[in-house]
Design brief:
The chain has 16 helices and 2 strands. With about 325 residues, it is mostly helical. β1 and β2 form a beta hairpin. It has 2 domains: about 160 residues, Farnesyl Diphosphate Synthase, CATH 1.10.600.10; about 140 residues, Farnesyl Diphosphate Synthase (Orthogonal Bundle). It is globular and about 60 Å long. A two-stranded antiparallel ribbon has the order 1-2.
Length: about 325
Amino acid sequence: MNSKLQSYLNVIDESVQNFQLPKNPKQLYEPMRYILALGGKRIRPVLTLMACELFKGEHSTAKNAALAVELFHNFSLVHDDIMDQAPLRRGEPTVHKKWNENIAILSGDALLIESYKLLCSYDAKLSQKLLHIFNTTASEVCEGQQTDMDFETQKIVSIDEYVEMIRKKTAVLLGCSLKMGALVGGASDKVADDLYQFGVNLGIAFQLQDDILDVYADQSKFGKQVGGDIIANKKTYLLLLAHQNANENQKSVLEKSISESDASIKVQHIMAVYNELKIQEKATSKMNAFYEIAMNNLKHLSLPEEKKQPLKDLAEFLMGREV
């Protein structure tokens, strides 16, 4: 990570640390402090600061919008962890495990409310614009999460349906982060929309990369269990692509593997089909296609190349995770 990206991260970390919450009720506000203190990549708020600086020359006015994005993201993580019954988040107990589900739900709700307070700190005209894109994004994130859960019991899922799901669940928040930063920085609606498209396409590429890394990453570098999506029977881009390209024998292996109780055998059998069908190469090609679309979105942005460089650097950083 270069020094410019690190400086943005430092700003966000400082903003999170200095974010003031009441002391009582302790069971409401302590879990909120806890999840925020666990850190994370902070990519979304960094995008907000970057987008603002593209137009205003400095990013301090976008701090509240960036923090709103980070609070919203953490609200969604708290609730996602409850739905997934996840025991750990960033290597530490999840909020519902450390406290209980009722406390986690309420603390997550309060994080969302704090996001709205931050966005309302701008003047009325700007706040209205920010709240419009924020509300649209929040609705789409919920739609994406519900669709992802629906996929668990849906026998047939098309690749187009899957891409639309990850667009809503993951990618639109990257687009929203950029668009809000641009609007705070004084960008025109047209330019802010162009940045939004860059963020969405980059977000889709990033999620497709995550699907690939789940199967093919070096576990010591990935930080998560390799093959976790296969073990959990998740419908990922790789699995849907395999079903689309498989012959009858390969489809039979994929179907039988769903009920396989031995995790290592399940991963071994499904990876064998993936390798026969060259799924890694095909998925990587699709990932690269969305990445190139994002780079073209950025290329056609009416700004000097040197101003766009930090966004290029961040995109390369995001997509530079090792397999």
